[in-house]
Specification:
nine-stranded mixed sheet; 24% helix; alpha+beta
Length: 326
């Protein structure tokens, strides 16, 4: 092979790897009747590890690691400490179309359209969302504008907040490494809200923003490259997610959004309502209510088996079936 052809081949490979989105966050859509993607991982920590560094390495949020490993020091986990990486997800109980952001989970899902080269896949990334007083709203909207290398014009409210702290902001923060929006931003149809990157990736998986949705730099780069303008965006609040994995009913629980919502109190607790809604098409689905209540109490953010339906033959979920019936 000539040197010219070798260089051309290497350049082609480089283009493929740089143009493609992060594969670690891409999963095949589950088959009809199933709602779970991914698999929980188990590792042993190194002496130099921290939850902030591991969260970015495994593309999970900081709080995800805290929920799944409540007895491990997030700053000094130690050398050889067993750690759970919660990379299995029950898909939110909403139409699988466009972008879905689940606030209690602090996670974004993207379901590409049939016309996309990624049709039949689902992409998911951890996000940082609005803190108390600046909560990210539950709403339906769309991607109104895509902005590479954005500048940031701080609104008066944020300028006033920083001024009180003795940290005055300029009228415009230019694009670059010090820009809080990162390298890419997608403006939503909702005024003043964006999906964007960040210059402070340690805040991903936390309530840190003024209402916008932040992603790791590599994640917003991947998402920005795939999502067309006009894509629908569904921002939901599902702290209790329920779905099927083969013949096994799974439940995943996250702490509710700290500011909650304004709906009146119902006669059933929210997690019971979520469970009933998820099984409304199968009213005879066997549910181990004691296990379900324990999953709610643990709130570790990982899908857990809470029942099996023997009429749904799925030999690949035997382990879950055994766990649910014990």
């Amino acid at each position: 092979m000539s040197l010219l052809r070798l260089v051309a081949g290497l350049a082609s490979l480089l283009f493929v790897f740089t143009a493609a989105p992060a594969m670690a966050a891409m999963y095949d859509m589950p088959p009809p009747g199933s709602d779970v993607v991914g698999h929980v991982q188990h590792i042993k920590t190194k002496k130099s590890d921290t939850f902030v560094a591991l969260a970015r390495k495994y593309d999970v949020g900081y709080r995800d690691l805290r929920e799944a490993n409540p007895n491990v020091d997030p700053w000094l986990p130690g050398d050889g400490t067993p750690l759970v990486i919660p990379t299995a997800y029950v898909l939110p109980n909403v139409p699988r179309k466009g972008i879905v952001i689940n606030l209690p989970e602090m996670r974004i899902y993207y379901f590409p359209p049939k016309s996309s080269q990624y049709a039949g896949k689902v992409f998911t990334y951890p996000v940082g969302i609005g803190r108390q007083g600046w909560s990210t709203p539950v709403t339906h909207t769309h991607v109104a504008q895509k902005i590479p290398h954005p500048s940031w014009t701080p609104p008066a409210s944020i300028k006033a907040e920083h001024a009180k702290k003795g940290e005055p902001l300029p009228d415009v923060v230019p694009a670059g490494p010090n820009n809080p929006l990162g390298q890419y931003a997608m403006r939503l149809g909702l005024p003043s809200y964006l999906i964007h990157g960040t210059n402070k990736p340690a805040g991903i998986g936390m309530h840190v923003s003024h209402g916008c949705i932040r992603l790791f730099p590599e994640d917003i780069s991947a998402l920005f490259s795939m999502v067309p303008k006009g894509t629908p965006v569904n921002i939901v609040s599902e702290p209790y997610k329920v779905g099927w994995k083969g013949n096994t009913l799974m439940m995943e629980v996250h702490p509710p959004h700290p500011e909650g919502d304004s709906k009146p109190v119902q006669s059933y607790t929210p997690w019971v309502q979520a469970l009933i809604a998820a099984t409304k098409d199968e009213p005879n689905a066997p549910v181990n209510w004691e296990k379900a209540q324990k999953v709610v109490q643990d709130g570790d953010g990982m899908p857990e088996a809470i029942g099996t339906d023997p009429r749904k033959h799925d030999p690949n979920t035997t382990a879950h079936a055994d766990a649910a019936s014990s």
